[in-house]
Design goal:
Layout (H helix, E strand, L loop, with lengths): L1 H18 L3 H21 L1 H4 L9 E3 L6 E6 L9 H13 L5 E6 L9 H6 L1 H5 L8 E3 L8 E3 L3 E5 L2 H18 L4 E6 L11 H8 L6 E7 L1 H9 L6 E5 L5 H10 L8 E7 L8 H14 L1 H4 L2 E7 L5 E4 L2 E7 L3 H10 L2 E3 L10 H7 L3 E5 L13 E4 L4 H17 L17 H4 L9
Length: 434
């Protein structure tokens, strides 16, 4: 049966590729994809498990010096977004107090390290750390063991790195007769990435570890959310992420630079990340183009963040996918754009709305629980009830504001955290210990 499904799937992909660019083809593609996945799950043992929580097997080592260990899913370019970059910065800051440092890659089996990551690790290299020898790739860990010493201390990042760390801490406690603790960089409420499910439950369990946790929480709104949900940690450090250094270079100029027609709307488009509401963004753009055809005629539409097909919006308008841009390319785009749409169903504010606002754009995002960026930035509009109609109306209002100013940008909301540096916002982090 599975062979027949696979053969049918192969033929369908060829046909779908011809007409996938329209909405019917796209819908059909999604339906067939889901059916194929459901059929495969019935017989494929890999799909019945949760591969990212495959245990790491520890073994004794005689390293005497205290060593900080970063657990991170990948260091490859295609995986390095804001979250991993932030993890590297936090790691480097904490590593100041440790004579040794090591990075454990938990998901990828590649030693291909993004150049941007190597630049972030430069401070450790200056201290004599051999980066290539200090990166341990455990993505393919069958038959491998991870050397763990008495004075190894760990920094977990994604929820599954914290989940697979817990048995290692239990082993460390038993073998070395000590009471271990760990750092946990929390950059979102990760159970929310899933439906109520095994992954939801496992992710949530990492916030209630039996081991002392030093929580390092990205943004006050996320920290407040954890408080509201009743989570407590042995120690807690909260920081507001500053604007990226490369983006900071152009923000002040962009906030004064008049935009020329055709004006640009930029959406943060990541179809593979459900919390960014790509489908809702598309529906909102289609409503806007259809309902306000005269206004939409002088605007162009671009999507950044993840590769996808260009999407027809109707009325001869198209959303053009630019994929994942370099920071320099992204900076150039923001300097010429007037309206941004970046949705995030999460208590974390995310980076793109603040980046766009710093460049003088009018930005549409959404409220969630206690998160409301509209209260912090005058050129960010926080949609309370997240529907395509409501987002489309705010896009219309934003475009009207831009046209009424003849393309001149907003007085950008350069809040304190936009003008800070990582060194400032992480000051004192290295003093946290148990």
């Amino acid at each position: 049966m599975l062979n027949k499904v696979a053969s049918c799937w192969s033929n369908c992909k060829k046909v779908i590729g011809i007409f996938r660019k329209n909405r019917i083809g796209e819908a059909f593609f999604i339906i067939i994809s889901k059916y194929h996945h459901q059929q495969a799950r019935k017989t494929d043992p890999v799909l019945l498990g949760i591969p990212e929580v495959t245990p790491l097997v520890p073994e004794k080592t005689e390293i005497k010096s205290p060593r900080l260990n970063l657990l991170v899913p990948s260091l490859e370019k295609r995986h390095v977004f804001g979250g991993i970059s932030t993890a590297i910065k936090v790691f480097c800051r904490l590593a100041v107090r440790y004579p040794e440092a090591r990075i454990i890659v938990t998901d990828s089996s590649s030693m291909d390290i993004d150049d941007a990551v190597l630049m972030l690790l430069a401070p450790l290299a200056k201290r004599g750390l051999n980066l290539r020898r200090s990166v341990v790739v455990m993505g393919d860990r069958y038959g491998k063991k991870l050397p763990v010493a008495r004075q190894d201390v760990f920094l977990a990042t994604a929820w599954w790195t914290a989940y697979i760390l817990e048995p290692i801490l239990a082993w460390q406690r038993r073998v070395y007769s000590l009471v271990p603790f760990f750092y946990y960089l929390i950059q979102d409420y990760e159970p929310g990435f899933y439906a109520w499910s095994s992954r939801y439950a496992m992710a949530e369990s990492t916030y209630r570890s039996e081991f002392s946790t030093i929580a390092i929480i990205n943004s006050k709104s996320l920290s407040d959310f954890f408080n509201s949900q009743g989570y407590s940690f042995a120690r807690r450090f909260c920081f507001e992420p500053p604007l990226n250094e490369t983006l900071m270079e152009g923000a002040e100029t962009a906030a004064r630079k008049k935009r020329e027609k055709p004006y640009k709307i930029v959406i943060y488009g990541r179809p593979g990340v459900q919390r960014n509401c790509f489908e809702l963004c598309l529906e909102a753009l289609r409503v806007f183009v259809s309902r306000y055809e005269a206004l939409a005629g002088s605007w162009e539409f671009f999507s950044v963040g993840e590769d996808h097909h260009h999407v027809e919006l109707g009325r001869n308008k198209k959303l053009r996918s630019l994929g994942k841009l370099s920071l320099v390319e992204y900076r150039q785009l923001l300097m010429t754009a007037s309206v941004g749409v970046s949705l995030m169903v999460s208590p974390h504010p995310s980076y793109p709305p603040v980046e766009m606002a710093a460049y003088g754009m009018v930005v549409i995002t959404n409220r969630f629980a206690n998160k409301d960026l509209g209260r912090q930035y005058e050129n960010i509009i926080s949609v309370d009830k997240l529907t395509a109609d409501n987002v489309a109306e705010e896009i219309y209002n934003a475009c009207q504001r831009v046209e009424s100013r003849s393309g001149n940008p907003c007085a950008a909301s350069m809040k304190k955290n936009c003008c800070q540096t990582w060194e400032n916002v992480l000051a004192g982090l290295e003093q946290l210990t148990m």
